[in-house]
Specification:
The protein starts with a helix and ends with a strand. It has 185 residues and is of the alpha+beta class. It has a single domain, classed as Lipoprotein localisation LolA/LolB/LppX (outer membrane lipoprotein receptor (LolB), chain A). The chain contains three helices and eleven strands; from the N terminus they run αββββββααβββββ. The chain has an eleven-stranded antiparallel β-sheet.
């Protein structure tokens, strides 16, 4: 997998958080609520220009959110289609974040958004994903008959949702980014 494809995979996995439905809590609620999601992703970047090739990648993700005051800590693990760890990210309750890549290098920043941008060179709405999980969007475009959000816009992303499948699109300075997310649990 090329460096660019690995970075595309990282983008997709970061956004996967937004497509997953939480695993129902087991047992009594505690002061620290634990939520876990997992799924698959495919990401592609179509560069501007007619002679540029589309790049892409895919894999699996695991996300754990532990709610605490005033912020939740997040742990994200990105896996290749064969189960190898591509990257592991963590946001502490104070907002500080680290991202460890498969080659062992570690990036640190003041937020998960900032550390992902360091790795990719693209701005992503990582900090908004928990709102997306709770069906809170800046602009809801359509809902189904049961009132579930089918399409929305948020943080520059256009979001289309079906049960267990989300499609996210955004224009980047380097081209058009598209992410398909499929929830396993």
């Amino acid at each position: 997998m090329t460096k660019r494809a690995t970075l595309c995979a990282l983008v997709g996995a970061a956004l996967l958080v937004g497509c997953a439905s939480p695993t129902p809590p087991v047992g009594p609620a505690s002061p620290t609520d634990l939520r876990e999601w997992s799924g698959r992703f495919a990401v592609s970047l179509k560069p501007d220009g007619t002679d540029s090739r589309e790049e892409g990648g895919g894999g699996r993700f695991m996300l754990t959110r532990m709610a605490s005051e005033p912020k939740a800590s997040l742990e994200l693990q990105l896996l290749s289609p064969f189960g190898q760890v591509m990257a592991s990210g963590r946001r502490r309750p104070d907002g500080r974040a680290t991202l460890t890549l498969a080659n062992g290098s570690m990036l640190q920043a003041a937020s998960l958004d900032a550390v992902i941008e360091q790795a990719l060179g693209w701005s992503l709405p990582v900090e908004r994903l928990t709102d997306w999980l709770d069906d809170r969007f800046e602009d809801v475009i359509s809902r189904d008959a049961q009132g579930q959000v089918m399409s929305a816009r948020d943080s520059g992303w256009f979001i289309r949702r079906e049960p267990h499948r989300w499609e996210l699109e955004r224009s980047q300075p380097t081209g058009r980014l598209r992410v398909i997310l499929v929830l396993d649990r």
